[in-house]
UniProtKB/TrEMBL annotation:
Residues 428-497 form the Transglutaminase-like domain. This is Transglutaminase-like domain-containing protein. SUPFAM superfamilies: Cysteine proteinases. Residues 519-551 are annotated as: Disordered. Keywords: Membrane, Transmembrane, Transmembrane helix. The chain crosses the membrane at residues 33-50, 57-76, 106-125, 132-150, 156-173, 180-203, 552-576. The keyword Ribonucleoprotein does not apply. The keyword Membrane applies.
Amino acid sequence: MAAWRRLCGLALVAAVAGVAGWGFHRVFPGSELLMAVVPAAVAPPAVAVLTGRRPLWLALAIDLVLWFAGAVLLYGGPQPALFADVANAWHALLTTLLPAQPEPRLLVLVHTLVWAAATVGAETLARTRTRIAAAVPALVVYGVALLLGVDGPGSNLPVAAALLVLIAALALVRENRPAAWLLGGVPAAAALAALALVAGPLLPVAAHPYNPREDADLPPPVRVDGVSPLDRVSAWLQIPDRELFTVKADQPLNWRLAVLDRYDGVRWTSGARFQPTGGRVPEGEWTGRADVVRQTVTFGGLPGSWLPAAERPVEVGGVRGLAADPDSGTLLAAAAPGKGFSYEVTSRVARPAKQDLLDATPADDANLTAFPAGPQRQLFRGLAREATEGVDTPIRQAYRLQTYLRTNASHDVTAPPGHSLKGLEFFLRTTHRGTSEQFAATFALMARTLGLPSRVVVGFRPGEKSGGVYHVKSGHVVAWAEIKFDRLGWRPFYPTPGRSGAKDDHDVVSSAIEESEALAGELSQGGSDRPRTSRPQSTGDGERPASGQDPWLLAGAAAGGLLVVYAAVAAVLPWWRRRGRRRAEEPGPRVLGAWRQTRDDLGLKGERALTAEDIVIRHSAEISTHLRPLAEMSNYVRYAPDGITDATATAAWQRSDAIRRAVRAGTPLTTRLRNRLLLR
């Protein structure tokens, strides 16, 4: 083979590996990705050129040394955790909100995969007469990039088109045909790639791709600070002139700090599952009209690692080690920011119409309507029913509760702190005075007795405006409550009345509170209080793509390759997932894996709000015989994990396998095949 063909082939192998590595641009957008990809794609083919007539072990040894040197450069110096990062980076990426921060501990996975693909491809091309086998490792890397980048911004279709053109050029170079063939073959491959760009979005998997993050084990809820922000409300009100932070924004809003959705009868805590992110925060349920508000926040004396922002943040810049809770949009820094620390936030502030509010129905979430056991439940339920008498529409009930508390108790910053059930009972029966801590906590609990899913939010009013900047002091702290509605998402309510005789500089009323009062007035006038049927909402997907495309659009090498890969994934993926769950190191995760596998087998993968008892009672006796013991085992793992043994895990999988056999026996073969091909 002519030397030029060999060199050209190695150059194409480097290009294929580099382009496959660039498939991670949905995971790590930015130039940092190039620093991990380019050296990894170029160095192994260069080694193959220099060691073409030397033993293979020598080439591999040189590649290994160069890989290590490249990794050290990526880290900026020797790093003892290098090999551990390579092993753990994939799991870290599965629990990260994309785009991920381009940290060396994550980029080293891309660096290693591309280096391995380039090494195998270059040595295969240099030492064999195969045509496109050298590109197969790069295609595997591209497949990994597709899976890890499902949630990321941008598209990988152009990357797939570029790979197709490069692989076609590699095949032509290895064919020993005249160089003129390249002049016709490469444009033909480019035309086929353009066809694939058009046909790709029409494939069924393009609309609902498999997302491995849905099966990843998220970190458990953690207590962020030693002192809850809700416990700080009364203390902050006692020293109202302490400046906490400043906000440069186009309009005054409430700056939320923490969201608390769990209540045990003594205190409200956060159930947030924070995930690392490079700056993007998933949007909430509301997809309608919203204002885009950009803020620049600068820390003064605000303690803790919570990051204030207007609801709902969708993009954050300037924070290293940023984490966000996808459900609430709450932001958290890896370490407590110091004075002068600044970051930028872009928020979408929902602006639903009056009819959207009237049509809203409460979300179905048992965790958000749970009320701790105790005699106070009857008190809260009785007062809630009294406040909402004659009103059945959920949104009107919520505004009636807000009005009831604002008119039947007074705001007093000298009131004793605390939000335990006994303390709130004392507030309702005796003192009738409190801070926003008591008002927000009481509203949330009263709402729960009506079946309205609620939580408490701690934040700050806009602050004092000076030169286009809002100066937020400790006296601006405020707690409010939120109720969750289907498709509408979380709606704020402000049950705390204004402070009589308060100074203006310590009692700035936010536009959100003013709008809330105006809406309450509008919704209490006219119209029936009977519940209304919710209107179908737009999915936001736009018009459906035109159907009836000619079959030749999906013909050719690109379509065939995609179908083969898709079929392989559909065949192997469920087995691989089940195998990983069954082989967990500890018995507790193995029991939970058996429970997750059973939920998948029963077709309940997406219904996370169902309790174990809900699942048991909806199935036949043949399945419930095994389902109930398995549900009890999974509950023991969650609440009493110390007693779980290997024998328990083995028994759990025996139950799971029995349920799987029963489900398969009762499901037609055609249905099973359809579910498998659609990755259900």
